[in-house]
Amino acid sequence: MGNLPVSKIDSKPTDHLLDASGLICPEPVMLLHKKIREIAEGETLLVIATDPSSNRDIQKFCLFLGHTLFQTIEDGQTFRYYIRKQAG
User: Fold this and answer.
1) Nearest-5° angle of CA 45, CA 85, CA 75?
2) Distance between alpha carbon 44 and the CA centroid of its chain, in Å?
3) Fewer Cβ in 10 A, N or C end of the chain?
4) pLDDT at position 13, please?
5) Which class is domain 13-84?
6) What H or E segment, with its residue span, contains residue 63?
7) Could you confirm whether 25 is annotated as catalytic?
8) Dist CA 80 CA 72 (whole Å)
9) What b/e readout covers 23-42, taking b as 16+ CB neighbours within 10 angstroms?
10) What is the spatial distance between Cα 30 and Cα 22, in angstroms, rounded to a whole number?
11) Domain residues of the chain, as ranges?
12) SS3 breakdown of the chain: % helix, strand, coil, rounded to 5?
């Protein structure tokens, strides 16, 4: 994860990583939609983004599709979203 500060949850492994750093709306959510289809139910995905609107977009994406956004971490201008894929 580069030079990002490490938080307690970062020490827990995630199953998949999607780095959408430098991309702007709607690209992070479009990539998330593609990636979530590729992973198995119950697996976790870490999404890294730098677009502030991704905060709103990723929350709504998870709510609408029933996935669990179980942690959001903001480190300066970088956002990390920990998502668990639910059945659907």
Assistant:
1) 35
2) 9
3) C
4) 80
5) alpha beta
6) helix 53-65
7) yes
8) 6
9) beeeebbebbeebbeebeee
10) 14
11) 13-84
12) 35, 30, 40
- Burial (CB < 10 A; 0-12, 13-18, 19+), residue 48, is buried
**Which residue from 52, 66, 44 is spatially nearest to 20, judged by alpha carbons?**
52
Beta bridge partners of 17: 46
Q: How far apart are CA 53 and CA 57, in angstroms?
A: 6
Torsion of CA 48, 52, 54, 57, to 10 degrees: 160
Catalytic position from the list 25, 31, 69, 73: 25
The neighbouring-strand residues paired with 73 are 80
CA atoms of 80 and 56, how far apart (whole Å): 13
Question: CA-based angle 24:28:30, to the nearest 5?
Answer: 120
State the CB neighbour count (10 A cutoff) for residue 20: 22
pTM score, whole prediction: 0.85
